[in-house]
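Here's a chain:
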Amino acid sequence: MVATYEAKLKPPAPVRLTNSEILATRVFHLGPKSSWSFLMLASEKGLLRTHLKPYKISATEWKEEIQSEFPDHKVQSKSEILDLTEKQMKEYFKGNRKDFDVPLDLHRSGTDFQQTVWGQLLKIPFGKVWTYGELAKRVKRPKGARAVGQANGRNPIPVIVPCHRVVASGGALGGFTGGLNVKRFLLDHESVSYKD
């Protein structure tokens, strides 16, 4: 049933850009022996998208993917926002950071409702989880657990906007657009208990 739920989740919300904007991409790997890749996309105003993948992706592959998605935009790797994001993510994965203070450019993605859900995700502390039902109550849609689950699945900036910290009632993992192996990895990193 979980696999079916995951298959129905849509990819992150599309990003709306103006034609003159410069984008920046970057990839880093979680360690010399790690096969995990953390992918980042930023505008000049803030972080637009992140992905955590359980396999290696080169910076060239990621840049080409973004360039094909946004063919009218200049794509570069130089970015103070990505410098800061990479620094903070490396600290997080080394266990030296629990909160992030990188600029986010979330207003370019999603509906008003999705943005409200993503705003609430930012309030879930490191090492804690909320259920989809709790999140629904916090966005004043107490019967909207499914709707918040779908909004959660469209989050364009996972890890920093911690959608992995939302689980099903009873502590089961629920779904995760990036794959349940990624959700397990993140929850294990934060020493969170869950039912597999």
Q: What stands out?
A: DSSP finds seven helices and six strands in the chain. The longest strand covers residues 22-29. Confidence is low (pLDDT under 50) at residues 1-10. Strands lie at 22-29, 37-42, 47-53, 74-76, 130-131, 166-167.
